[in-house]
Automatic annotation (TrEMBL):
Residues 26-191 form the Glutamine amidotransferase domain. This is Glutamine amidotransferase. It comes from the Bacteria. Keywords: Glutamine amidotransferase, Transferase. GO terms for cellular component: cytosol. It comes from Sphingomonas montanisoli. GO terms for molecular function: transferase activity. PROSITE patterns: GATASE_TYPE_1. The keyword Transferase applies.
Amino acid sequence: MKSCLVIRHVPYEGVAGFRAPIEAAGYAIDRVDVTDPDFANVDFDAPDLVVMMGGPMGVYDVERHPWISCEITRLARRILLDRPTLGVCLGSQMIAAAMGSRVYPGPVKEVGFSPISINGAGQGSPLRHIEDVPVLHWHGDTFDLPSGVELLASSDKYAHQGFRRGDNLLALQFHSEMGEDPRFDAWLENEDDVTAAGLTVPELRAQHDTHGSTAVAAGRLMIADWLARLA
């Protein structure tokens, strides 16, 4: 089988709904946490697919999280080799940083389920499957668009919601993997983020219950489409 390495930055942000299409595409999934003692020795070049998930830390927070610099260095090499790589939220920001772009705090917290706008380039991309589908957002950072990539989607709060380089690199700022995973309860414990976005925890729970399954179904179609295009 082909190999997929999932890089997890916190225990409650795993591959979630993306597991099914990745396994259906013939990948055996392995996982490493950035807190694992052997993380510094993980070979980012070896896996057939690397999936980098989200986390509450910022890419720029290297003093509190020394593993960030090490991760970006190895990720930059993988991108240079054009090895298939997917980044979600913090993972997308890591990709941007590894490609030399600035990552920084944005103007607002974007939290909750809402659709994103798919642009012209995105219409022919895997992101077409999530058009008009409310998906989960949970971030307050953004990034400058790296050189040589295609912007695929935006929201009313953040212009850079998804980009790709060729078929092998896809970066998603939003969380279309989340909507059915019980670990969402751990996300809701960060009530400050919810409040900063103008929501209450019960309101966000209601959004999750209304939109979660539809969001995950669309996200799975998107990832299956992307995997089918890998060079």
